[in-house]
Amino acid sequence: MTHLTRLTLDPRHTAVRKDLADVDSLHKTLMRLVPDNLGPHPRARAGLLFRLETGPEHVLLIQTAHQPDLNALPRRYGTAQTRNLASMFTALRPGMPVRYRITAAPTIARSAGTPHPHPVTGKRRGKTTPLTGDAADAWWHRRALAAGLEPLTSHATPRPFPRKDHSRIGPYTLTQFEGHARITDTDLLTTAVTHGIGKAKNYGAGLLSLAPAQP
């Protein structure tokens, strides 16, 4: 069963300061919450998604496919509350109004001039390019609809990648989208929440949060 953990970090902790400054280090710390020996794609197998919330406190939202092992975190790293999302999934209904929030990495595969298509898929390899502004908004609208969610309002805010050497992480930039929406397909939405949306999930992208909203 999918679990969501709200972890309030202690900014005085040496490990916390290190992780807040470098998303690679943060990802390694959070992988300690899940079992070992999960094969070649451990993050995906563990269902690990996370998002660093903005505000006066340093809060991490962490989603895992199973109960996380919080004892694996450094001592006094933070204070955690974990809940099972089964009741939330059960409550979802088509037409239900919700508030949503997601930090995502909008991208598009642009033609790289590859002359020959892939022998199996028939597709030409494209160069992954980050999207910003109106293009990012359009990307989110498409991905939300494909996830069983019809956005009614949307506010987009650029978000930085924590990176100790200030270098860019691959072809990705982060944008936080939040607003109100209407559920159109509960199966698609459950899958999207469980597995995340878009790329750069190792770096704090893709976790979709939902809350009830007034009609």
TrEMBL record:
Lineage: superkingdom: Bacteria
InterPro entries from the UniProt entry: CRISPR-assoc_prot_Cse3
Location of the region described as Disordered in the Swiss-Prot/TrEMBL record: 109-131
SUPFAM superfamilies assigned to the protein according to its UniProt record, in alphabetical order: CRISPR-associated protein (SSF117987)
Gene3D superfamilies in the cross-refs: Crispr-associated protein, domain 1, Crispr-associated protein, domain 2
NCBIfam families reported in the protein's UniProt record: casE_Cse3
Protein name listed in UniProt: CRISPR system Cascade subunit CasE
Organism: Streptomyces wuyuanensis
